[in-house]
Structure formats: structure tokens, C-alpha cells
Amino acid sequence: MNPTGPFESPLSLEIEREGRAHIVRLRGSASMEQVEDLHRRLVELIEPAVPHLVLELSELDFISSPGIGAIIAAHLKARAHEGSLRIVSPTPAIAGLFRLLRIDRQIEIDDTLAAARAALEGV
Amino acid sequence: MHFGVNQGDLAEVIVPNDLRSAKQAEDRIMAELVRCGYDSDTSFAIKLSFEEAITNAVKHGNKNDPAKRIVVRFQITVQRTVIMVADDGAGFAPDEVPDPTADNNLERPNGRGIMLMHAYMTKVWFSETGNEVWMLKDRRETTP
Fold first, then answer.
1. Which element (helix H / strand E) includes B45?
2. Distance, C-alpha B100 to centroid of its chain
3. Cβ distance B83 to B16 under 8 Å?
4. Testing the interface with A: which of B26, B29, B48, B121 to mutate, by most A Cβ within 10 A?
5. What is the pTM of this model?
6. pLDDT digits (tens, 9 = 90+) for A22-38
7. Residue-wise pLDDT tens digits, B108-117
């Protein structure tokens, strides 16, 4: 555990476009004071020409329900544009949170980025 | 007095009604968790529950009104953590919040906070008016 305190790394997004999808690697902690910006940034990425979004979460160490609300908002927008949102490699703590809230019933969760890419081939 | 804690033994932080200001209270709580040697999973559970309570207070209790305030009180020991969050709002009925895991609620933008507090903390207690919540985490309890 970080000796200066857990879950203190600021949230960062690394965004790459691959065809009709954006791959977003989230790093750090999606703490409450950063979620409004996260919501806006994720939703802005969804557009008719790029309706798919992949969120790579292996380096995201914290998220609370407003952050999950941001993911769901992006998921709904993607679906409205006949696209999709996939989640990749959440940490065990966050995967447990998704299972508890049944997020895994509405959003596909892949073990690897390769698996997510394979699922999006040809879209 | 709740969960056996005397009011005089609680640290208190009063913050303006916004999430960035409430971070000061969170930082103090997280620092105490480190000092008391809490593990990552338990710290996650406490941070999550605290943020859910604060978000509810800011947005639903105080209706995003910058003139209102939030009171946080807490006591952290090596055995357990007690946190209280109170807002200036009119209150609500926690029992009337719909189940966020019901099929027709899965895509709602909000409504998950209270369920998460109950799932991740050992005990959760709301005042009769609903604008004050007390949460207890027994460090020996495993997280979901």
C-alpha cells in the first residue's frame, strides 16, 4: 500500500482511436471530485462515426457510484448510436463492485484488451 | 451517541457543500486509516462508503446549494471506524430508495449509494429525518 495513502493517484485517461472504437486506459482513482469531468469526457467520445468505447481498467484502483453512473451514461449513448461499451481487466475490488451492482449484466467485461478487440472486429 | 462512541471522542470537519471541499475530510480519514494500518480492501470499502454518503449529502440532501454545509465526524481506531455525515437538507426516507439491482433500475444514472454503504460497511444507521447517516466498519469483517 502506498505509504502516503491509498487511492491518492489522480485520475488520468489515455485515449487512442482504433477504427470505430476509442480505447481508454483509466489510471489512478476515480474519486468523487473527479467524476464530473470523467462523465463529460467519456460521453464526448461517443459519436456516430466512433460509437464503440473500450475502458481498460487494470490500473484504476478506485471508483464509486457516480463514476459507475458515468460509465453507464457512456454505455447508453454508445447503444443509442448502435455501438457498444466494453470493460477490460477491472481490479478484483472493482470487479466485485460491478458484480454487486450487476453491471456485468449490461456491460461486457473482457479479461484482456485482445479479447475486447476481437469482439469488435468487423463492427 | 451511536455505535458506542461518545461525541467528544469524534473528530469533526465542517465543509462547504461541494465534492472538492469534502475531499479535506476524506483525506483526514484516509490518513488515519494508513496510520492505523488498515489494508487496501478495507480502506477501499471505507472510502467508497464515505464518498457515497458525501455525494448523497451534496446532491440530494443539500440540493447542490453552495450556501449549505456538510458536517463529518469520525473516529478511527485499529479495531474499527465510525463515520457520520450530516447535511442541512430536509431529509428523505432511505427505505424508499428503489433497489438499484432490479432489472428495470440497472441503467439508472444514480441510486446505488445507499446499497453500497450497506454492502461495504458493517452497520449503517440513518436518523429519523434521513439527513444524518452513521456508518461503522469493523476491521475484522471481510469486504464483499
1. helix B40-55
2. 18
3. no
4. B48
5. 0.94
6. 999 999 999 999 999 99
7. 888 888 999 9
The mean of the pLDDT values for chain A is 94
Please check whether residue B71 touches A, CB under 8 A. no
Nearest to A93 among B44, B55, B115 (CB): B44
DSSP letter, residue A50 = B
User: Does the pLDDT value for residue B142 go beyond 80?
Assistant: no
Chain position carrying cell 480502506: B43
Give the list of residues 6+ apart from residue B135 with CB closer than 8 angstroms, or none: B49, B50, B53, B82, B83, B84, B85, B117, B121, B123, B124, B125
Helix axes A65-80, A35-45, angle to 10 degrees: 10
Strand order of the β-sheet with A52-63 is A12-18, A21-30, A52-63, A84-88, A108-110
B101: which 3 cell numbers?
439491482
